[in-house]
Amino acid sequence: MATNPEAQLQTMIDNMPEKTGKSLEEWFAVLGASGETKHGNMLKLLKSEFGVTHGFANTIASLYRQQDVETPPDLVAAQYEKKAALRPIYAKLIAAVQTFGDDIEIAPKKTTVSLRRGKQFGVIKPSTKTRIDLGIQLKGEPTTDRLEDGKVFGGMCSHRVRLSSVDDVDETVIGWLQEAYQRA
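Predicted structure:
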């Protein structure tokens, strides 16, 4: 039995023709012809009209949506469109994080950028026109004047650092991020 996620996914794709009656490519053609673009609607179609089990339907829809996106939106550019003065702060944070190791995932979302290594260790959020809030996962560390409580991140991070200039991204902040990375 496959133990890592990639092997499990490949096993599921390999078993798809036998278990569902069609290959992944054939299911992609079905979804393409349907015109559905929302994950939930794809699941409903596959399950109700074709009798595909939830696990296979979810896998098919997820993979279809991943490959179907021709030009992903530049979520980072959108975040800084009206906050251009903050972009150098973001760039300095990303440059520092990329020196930590080859296993970092930088995952832009609509309003934030997640920093992950197995699990999330940081979040970059341009909160106002003059400030980035850097969320850091350093559970158990005491708060300070700079390393504030991270409640503003709704449990995603234990601490927050307010950054208003490139100079705010100093050795201390990078050290906190590196510690969070090592714990992740």
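Summary: The radius of gyration is 21 Å.
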